[in-house]
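Lesson 9: reading folded outputs for more than one chain in a single document. The general rule is that every protein is listed as its sequence immediately followed by its structure tokens, and records are never interleaved. Here is the first one.
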Amino acid sequence: MNACVWCGRPLHQVVTLNQIWCWAPLTQSVACDQCRQRFTAITSQRCPQCGRQQTDETVCVDCQRWTGRPLTNHAIYVYDEAMKAYMQQYKFQGDYALRLLMQEPIRAALFREHYDVLVPIPVDQATWQKRGFNQVTGWLRQAPFQQALLVLADHKSRPQSAKDRSARLQTPQPFTLAPNAKEVLHNQRVLLLDDVYTTGRTLRHAANQIYLGGAKAVTSLTLAR
């Protein structure tokens, strides 16, 4: 008997008759139903550009403010109190086991996207030394990806989570292309993967670099909006 990776409740494996007759492999759950149901999935009523949950499907006010090349983002969950609690424990407290909780939702969401190359948003060296992992790549169980972006060595900034909207929007370009990026990006459809879409500034910085690498199209997917 295993335990839920988030709350620690015992997990009881349920074997279906179909699994018995078909000799289907048993998939071990990593979280209890109560924890899985804490998150609020974004429905079809969302902004068509950033994926924000709303009461209609018109372009939201935040997206109308952006100029330049548009970026379409899809998000899986609303960034509510449950998601804040998850990100606090996983990302900021470094509970790496919690990556397991979101691997299946990310896998399912990637299956619905249309892309050639998956590029996760990288973390800087200071974060690697402190946390020991990239929270985004931790969700990628089997999906192949390219680390086409690097954080500039001289990029010094407060974490995005510590900034208000105005400060986020003024964040300078933090990314550069990896040495082999142009070889893998040229004329490809690229999907950026990040944890939370807040203002869209980070993803647009990333998209600008990816286009410089020769990509023909860039979209993004985030766990939350």
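And here is the second record, again sequence then tokens.
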Amino acid sequence: MPQILFLDDTLLVICKPPGLLSQPGRRPEKWDSVITRLKPLYPDAVVVHRLDEPTSGLMILARGQAMSSGLSKAFRERRINKRYVAIVNGVMTNDEGSIDFPLIADWPNRPRQKIDFATGKPSLTHYRVLERNAAQNWTRVDLEPYTGRSHQLRLHLMALGHPILGDPLYADPQTYVRAPRMTLHAAHLDLDHPLTGEKLSFDSPVPF
């Protein structure tokens, strides 16, 4: 069961474990998910943003459709702030920067996304180096997605030449086997409570 960090009549904030879908897939073996586990306890729970199956960390769920619409609007208007931590292959040169590559679904190879400068949707990620390990050839980075495209962080880092360790879709085989799981964690989340306006801030310890 996902760990519940905050609960009231309007929303839930949970910590999703790696290897669990946010929502069920089409095939029976993909039925297990955050929402199918929480629905028996909170029948009005609605997913308003997703984490990829191999990603762990903080997620918000709304209580009811009206609240879902309000939280979805807050995400679109960037009034909900999210930050992630990842360990990537190689030693990054710059201490911080931005990755601005437009993304679109790679339909013949779904669920993969791809960079497409002609038809891709604008996608922007800010990054900041937290730690470099030259001996083991990896870098720990703080990531702030300005947009929220599917697989944005994973694809942006791969395109920069620093794929995430353990990424089953975008890492090369040597980088994929360097970690027992994908080293991407949704570590911070803050928002104004949709009813009271109270500032809510959550941090989840990075498990790698």
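What the second record shows: The chain is about 15% helix and 35% strand.
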